[in-house]
## 1
Amino acid sequence: MDIASFFVQALNGLASASSLFLVAAGLSLIFGVTRIVNFAHGSFFMLGVYVAYSLVSHATPAVSSALSLVLGDAASQTAAYFLLLLCAALVTGALGALVEVMVLRRIYQAPELFQLLATFALALVIQDGTLWLWGAEDLLGPRAPGLSGAVDILGRRFPTYDLLLIATGPLVLAALWWCLQRTRFGVLVRAATQDREMLGALGVNPRHLFTAVFALGCALAGLGGALQLPREPAHLGLDMATIGDAFVVVVVGGMGSIPGAFVAALLIAEIKALCIAVGTVDVFGVSFAFSKLTLVAEFLVMAAVLMVRPWGLLGKPQSAPRASTEQEAPFALGGARTQRVWLLLGAALLALPLFTTESPYTLVLGIDLLIAALFAASLHFIMGPAGMHSFGHAAYFGVGAYAAALLVLRAGVSSEAALLLAPFVSALVAAPIAWFAVRLSGVYLAMLTLAFAQIVWSICFQWDDFTGGSNGITGVWPSAWLQDKSSYYWLTLVLVSASVYALRRVLMSPLGFALRASRDSVGRAEAMGLNVARVQWLGFVVAAGFAGLAGALFVFSKGSISPDVLGVSKSVDGLVMVLLGGVHTLIGPLVGAVTFTALQDSLARSTDYWRAVLGGSMLLMVLVFPQGIAGSVQSLWHRVRDEHASDERGVA
């Protein structure tokens, strides 16, 4: 490829960087002030595109005719077009303010992960709301008047509109810098970023500030979406496609750093553009397609940056975590009454196939619920006692599934042996990843796990000769005696029950208490002689192994596997299950897994807008049960028991 082509491709990267920066800047602002990891931020980008489409399609003639009195006919159309794009951003910002007042303001005191759950629920509601208003078809907006052509650059044609996008990023960066550095609003934002409690003590109403910042962040996301209208159609997948890239840019640049987001957006966009420009290269007779790296380039960059500079390029080092002041009851097995309840439940589950001969789907759903319970329990193992929040736990679920499938189809191993070997393969893959991950904490740890998970997903997605690529692997069935659904259900029940019990016993072993000590206070744990990194590494690997077993059970129950099971959505499902049930309870992940999977299954079969119903249900649960379903029930039971004991002492 010649120099001219490289230069034009670099300009394409700059245009993409501007749009990416607008979204990431809004996300960084919101996190810096509210400390909310806004999973719904990509939804506001999507809304910006849809709202811009509606405004431009229906209001352009009226606005253009009004402006023609001042600007003339030629300039009025262009001015009307961009004025309506700006209005779309303002509408999106107003919707963001409404969401903050109606929902997020009520959960600022909730744990950060529950705030993440609430924003994920909002993303589901917004997606189905968009589906209801605009339909499922892609909507391609009109090109910008006066900027629909192209210019010659070194003999290559380059879109005129993209030149405008290139200039937009630096202009927005300059405007944000002036706002944050030269205005009272900016002083308050910077103060809130440093110490929100002190800001409230000085008499500033943090509610109004939070609403303004959230609205500004959503408006920036909406502007980024609106500016994409001439470049790509509005469709329902924009939200999830955008939020992943935005998270990466914010983390690479440094959480809360607007200049960092700009630098990271430039870096990632240009690396992607360079991969496309290089194309396929032959090295010693081996062809390597650099263009395929565009699927995972940003995650490779994020992993490299976080391993060298854990706080991002222009971010600040995190302060040492404070010791936990919350008095949490230690994990313990239930008494005789609780054990009898478990035995009765186990007997009922064992007898389930005997009563479902007329409803074969019930057994299929039962197997799915059991696998989801094991997957959630394995994630809870590192989230609850260790405080390590993984956004990429599905990678080990998927590795276990692929390992079992390949062992059966390629190595000729029996399905029984594959079920035993798959967890060790997952643990082996997790071992080097965990070595890097446990050196980080908080959002940076979560994002590094996401980066590694996306790298694993990219390998499975593109290695056609070994993993089947995007088509996956089919024809993966268990041994003959397990092909009957009842037999496979009983095997799944036995393995899941044994695994969940083993995880619970480990939580009450020295390793479990060491994990909890490392979560509550790293300094105190190290002072007691614990090697915190080694303890957390071991916990991470154990959790990955059990997730791999869940994946192996999954592939034999379905008969096939595809890269989707390693995707971000599967990891988010696991997080939702754990949070929905309750992080600080032993039974929480099981309750959350059954509730989430059953709700998702029943709603998906009963309504086209099941995401909105599911998201609304999750929002209601977050507001009503801020500690999760099982956690809230447990707290209520302890409160009633203590009040009853107090009354008995009073009578005595």
## 2
Amino acid sequence: MRFLDPWSNCRRSSFSLAALAVVTMFCCLPSAAQELAPGVATKAPAVGLKPGDQDSLVSRLVMQLLPKRHISGRKVDDEISARALDIYLKALDPMKLYFEQADIDEFAKYKTQIDDLTLRGDLSPAYQIFTRYLGRVNDRLKLAQELLSGEFEFTTPDKIVTDPKATAFAKNAGEVRDRWLQQIKFNILDLKDEGKTVDEAREQLQRRYARYARRWAQTDSDEILELYLSSITMAYDPHTTYMSPSSLNDFNIQMRLNLEGIGAALREKDGSTVVSSVIPGGAADRDGRLKEDDHIVSVGQALDGEMVDIIEMPLKQVVGLIRGKSGTIVKLGVKKGGTGETETFEITRSQVQLEDSAARGKVIEHAVPGSDQKLKIGYINLPSFYLDMEGARQNTADFRSSTRDVRRLLEGFKAQGVDGVVLDLSRNGGGSLTEAISLTGLFIDRGPVVQVKNSNGSVQDYSDDEAGVAWDGPLLVMTSKLSASASEILAGAIKDYRRGIMVGDPTTHGKGTVQTLMDLGREMFRNDRTNFGALKVTLQQFYLPDGDSTQLSGVAADVILPSIIAEMDISESDLDYALPHDRVPQVRHQVYNMVPANLLESLRQRSTGRVGQDSEFLDLLRRRDLYIQQKQEKTISLVEEEFVQRRKNLDAQKEEEKESLQDEENKEVIYRDYYYNKEVLNIAADYILGLREQNLATASVKR
């Protein structure tokens, strides 16, 4: 099983691959709301934790497979060991609230030992560190309960550090107490801002901290093994992870349940559940309100169900609350972008609908700025590279695919006499590699589209072998930081062939790797069905025809437009230990005359001039700068007046964004007629007319 869609990899996950996969697809299992309700134990608390009977064998196998199957081919060495320790500690205590510096100093011995010990099947570091962590969690629970019983002063000039990189572990009991007092004051102010009294906030925080301690105390050996081995595998790259036997069972169940749920990929970040992507055609996508980088803080079942606080809840258990049968309602308490007031979204769980993720097109009559001329521009919204694999295998006459649908749209455009085509990949997170290749072939006449390097170092190119093109006129491809994987392959090939221009964020997402799922039971015993879990390992890397990898650097835009998404930490380069960008030799291919250098520079200058005079773009730039400023803040004031004013500013910004993007909430609209897209069409018009001036209105090959 290959994972070509980066959003199914749930960046910065909680290291539970089953949670990762189920979050992506939200399978149709009975709701876990009751079994996960606060105060109700789901299993016996962990007492005298020790590895399971097969854990030593599994750890040895994973350590043997990693250097053999991972594309890097590197050994599990001391550098991997040091990274693994760092990842494991961050997974347990991302905000440095529980461990003390003395603990970290004691654990430092494992920096050069984890590799050797795990290769021998010795998991003692995992259990010694985890046992210490459980003790610290209980200590902090007692301290929190004590502090919550006291009085709080919100006028003293206290601040809380919000960036874990900007703080260190507490060195003594006094520092621990100060840090937890700040943490509690921040949480109380946060809850007061939502309308709760101080007493109500105290009660909610008492439940939250108690639940957090209880859940960690219920951790079993499977979960510890998954957390620990994934810390080692993710030291290779962030998409290589270990899946425990129970997680593999969950994954296999949800794979058979055909994408039912709300259709969103989540990640865990510093104790919060954050939306990393919304799957095209899913329930959340059709609802339109849930967006990337939103924080889910509570979950409820049905319209009248009680909202359960999920802050600090492990991601796998959050999934248990959110998933459920198609047709049922889940309520999500959401902080837009992680700030401001909590909004409640009622979303009806459902299957992902192909029609809602299919390519759609529209011909737009666009008035050329500064003239009376109008151009016909064909706009295609392509949210994913999809393929009805069963229909394709059976060669059904009408099986659906993105290539077939886009070809049909292009034929319709030609019949209407369009002057140019805009292909919107700005929200396209990837999909089928085969479709990315064949769809690229609609715009080029045969040739290599992508190169793939295997773990043995060999490189193979994959080509469009079908003669002819569906569209040979001016082509503009819209990209963003959300354009990933298969999208980057198409965009990169079009750019290398100089067949069209890229417009959008400075660069695309930058995921240029392929993962495969290896069942460890089959690896060990071939036909034996014993469940030993699975290893998801990165075994291939993508390269463009000219030899550049899409990994990390993505595909650069030819004309850059400002956006807030471009400033979000959601790309491959924002992940710890992501594989580096590199090159392979280029392969021979045609080069078209569709991107003259002098025209490209003119397009940039004209667009910059328009953006600088457009009031809506200027407002976007203001909001972008405010977002950057807030993102760079390392601390937040705990003076109530300053805290409330900061929230008001954030809420005002969110309200402005909501108003400016109202048109985007209507999923029936193919083309969203707002300032950003209008400028894309302005650039397309300049491009079309510029090519005509140089007699290059159709694709011609440069020899």
## 3
Amino acid sequence: MTFIIQGIGAAKGISIGMVHIIDSGQVDIDEYTIPETRVDDEIQRLDEALSLARAQLRAIRAKTPSNFGADVTNFINVHLLMLEDTVLTQVPMDLIRERHCNAEWALKIQRDTVVGVFEAMDDPYLRTRKDDVDNVVNRVQWILQHVERSDQATAERHLEGKIVFADDLTPADAVLMRHQGVTGFLTAHGGPNSHAAILARSLRIPVVAGLHNARLYLRDGEEVIIDGRQGALLLEPTGEILAHYQQLQRFIAHHHNTRQRLRTLPTTSANGERIILQGNIELPADATAATEVHADGVGLYRTEFLFMNRDTPPDEEEQYATYRNVLEAMKGAPVTIRTLDLGADKQVDGGRPGAPLSANPALGLRAIRLCLQEVEIFRPQLRAILRAAVHGPVRIMLPMLSAMHEFHQVQEILGSCRQELEREGIAIGKDIPIGGMIEVPAAAVCADLFARELDFLSIGTNDLIQYTIAIDRVDDEVNYLYDPLHPAVLRLIQTTIRAGQRAGIPVAMCGEMAGDARYTRLLLGLGLKEFSVHPNALLEIKQVISESHIGKLKKFAARMMRTINTDNRMALLQAINANTSAALSS
């Protein structure tokens, strides 16, 4: 009898194979004091462990096939940078000198400090960056303890066609095991925002995460099925179920090949309507991934990653050079640069060193509020954007707008920056559109007011859904309430789209809902004409759009807006995605 364990679908796809269980948990360490005479030796021991950890990651990067894409090496590079950062190198050495603690203990003390800051963050994506700290620290701890790393241990094993189960996975684990032929990952912890999950999506490896108790039921070497779409792990599959999933695998492979043929074609619906399909990026190297799938531009460039893992903010010159690189990589396609979206709780970054933690960071000093209060951080970014706009079409997007006076303040600061640069004889871009993210319910309700003055709007569904329903989607106790189809959420989305239509300005969506193909037809029916998604999701969204008749979808969307019952809404969504005529009937 088939047994199903429900987890979190962190990367789509189907994998069938024998499970291989590996040990990748935290390292148990001894904590003890050392005599003064051993301090220098202990510091040298830590320094040698850090050097070996860097060498391991460089070796993994060197083995990475070039066709794995930029995401793969980017993640490894992030860990290499962390192994050079004084936060995880110099500070533990200072602790050894000051407290006479052993290297493992010093590293653990600093790990706990840094992770504590990340755990206080309100942003779900940034909160999971504590995983990177753990990944890097664990690697060094394993070396200090002379314990075999999971990636070293598996390097000599035959993993071709296996599905790996681990407590959690580092990006380096994922790369190395993919190179060894692993076809799927199962993790006890983690979720869709972990670096390993994001990387797995780049590598097209299905992942089911959050399988907290699965180890009680799994046996090494047994055949299992993982369904990354539904977040399900199937044990002891019957012949009938096995045949069903094998057919599903062939169906997915066929659709993947079909999408590749769409790569160079414009995004057009079945009834001939042109849809703008852009990419979301975080690092300059991500622009390459966007161009590879022929995105219409960058609809969201998250600039806060420039400010992370450093003690001081990047200066104007560094930001200018970075933005210029992105624009040049996009070869004339427009780039929407979102201004700094950090908060008072994110002090591990080069944002506001020494600022107090907010009691409620989700509702505190963050995003545009922070920029308007800390203008010395904001002005260099605006000046850098103005200068970079000479090298390609740029749009400025303001995060977390909630009142019109915030936009007016930005206009004043931006105008002042323009005048300064002109006086200095520095070339700047002209007529740069300024838009706002609609991610606060107040902004969505007043979208018509914003649409009168802004050049464009972009709906950030991640925060909009959380603020509207008042839940934290990464909180296990309440995340079941996270519902993009909630009537209040759909009404706010529809209100924003209609406000843009009446004002004659573009309205895009750049949140996760835009990159989830389950909602594409609904959003088209609601009138959305611009999507901005992760480059890995772009071709799938393009395929759905190309097969959709928007005129018919408008009837479906109207019916969805009238449906109150949760189960009925889900049934409607499933019906339209299955192309059933029932969903399109009035």
## 4
Amino acid sequence: MPAMHARHLLLALILLVYLLLATLYAVNVPAWQAPDEPAHFNYIHELATTGQIPVLRAGDYDEAYNRALTSQRFPPELSIAPLRYEAHQPPLYYLLGAAIFRVSGGELLPLRLLSVALGALFIVVIYAMVRLIFPGRAELALGAAAFTAFLPMHVAQAASVNNDALAELLLAAILLLAIRYLRLALLGPRPPSRWDALAIGLLLGLALVTKVSAYVAIPVALAAPLIAWHESRRSPIHHSPINHSSFTNSPISHFPTHPSSFILHHFALLLLPALLLAFPWYLRNVRLYGNLDILARTWHDAVVVGQLTTGELLAQAGLAGVLERFFAWSHDSFWGVFGWMGVWMDARIYTAALAFGAAAVAGGMWQVTGGHRSGVSAQQPASRLMPHVSRFTSHVSRFQTWSLALLALSALGTLGIYLLYNLQFVQPQGRYLFPALPVISLAAAAGWWSVARWPEAARWAGIALLAAAGLAALWGVTHEGINRWSLLILGGGGALLLAWSLARPRLVGAAQGWATRLVYALPFAAMAGLSLLALRVFILPQLR
């Protein structure tokens, strides 16, 4: 089977499994048992029935009533109508939801399935993005897509009514187009056109009227032409007859003449459509809420009172208690704490997830620190004989570096929003990090591929897990007692990775390739199984 067909079949399989899992969640999770789902639904209901965008008013958030609803699992005698605290949100997602609401007669399931569909597009965009950056590394694109598709908490969120799915999709699409813009600027076959800049600007405008978390797209969109302008000041890229099938079959193009005016033109094409789309929303908010509160955040914070603040927790538990809760809850809820942060999985599952994450980080660190330099010596003679090959390789490398920098910029923006929010309120919910899934999933795939592919990386990862087991034992001795399951999972995982580092070099031919692919695929397959297990074993028994 040709490699391209195999990649497409595997991507189709990932999407099919995701759609099955997310649909099971959408159908079976009881109504309103997803964070903020009633408030999002009420926004759509009001928009669909009155034709008016809701206004956030004092009294739209009642902490005591919210706790009564969630603690009693939303009994039918308690109405969800008072939950209107999402009325400050930008309207784009809710306009889509209102159309579905009218067609379906106000049923909850079709609105959940809208989020499922947006989540599927998000997976496809992540796959396309990784393929664009690393065209010869299909395993990374498939691994990143699988990580996003099968992450249990993301499956649960993608099967509920919320505006996160659209915000994540638009942010990922802007990243994809920004990376494509850089590819055209550095590698050709033509310079980025005004239409390339305009497309980013239009998507940016849609993101601005979707959710504040998508605002991290602003620096990403503006960085793309700045990087292109910076690269235009380097030595020019000459046309080359090289046929590098992984990137382009066309000659590499010059950057346009007069790059400064070119970039200013593209800045205008980026910003003007975005501002034109967002300005009416900003003007409305200023008129309603005053004080130049264009995002309605100040008014929202004044209305949403009664939540536990970080200052209050700090006074109760001290800095160590705040940090312990922040890191533990962030990690566990990233993988899956369901309902309204009340349905936890077995603690051993979170330990196994931690072990996988630690192994992937170790593999990534081994790769970044130069552990894998295969092929360098083989390329050097060719580069000396054909300097244009060296120039081409240099521009490919710079394109990948800048692309990863854009991804990092986006992830840092998401992390910054998360940290600032938690400085104000106690909200260590890992789902707030999902806009950074393009980066997180690529990092997980790349790190784990290093572990599966290179014995030295597997050895690093094994040692890291054994060291973690030792730290867990030391913590247990000095605190509440040794957790034997933690020692077994971390130590056993480390021993298995050390065994793999010894076994892989002894495999030959096709057996080595198949074994490597199997080891690489195992965690992602386990994540898919965990998503189903979480629904059947933890979520439904507790929420029903």
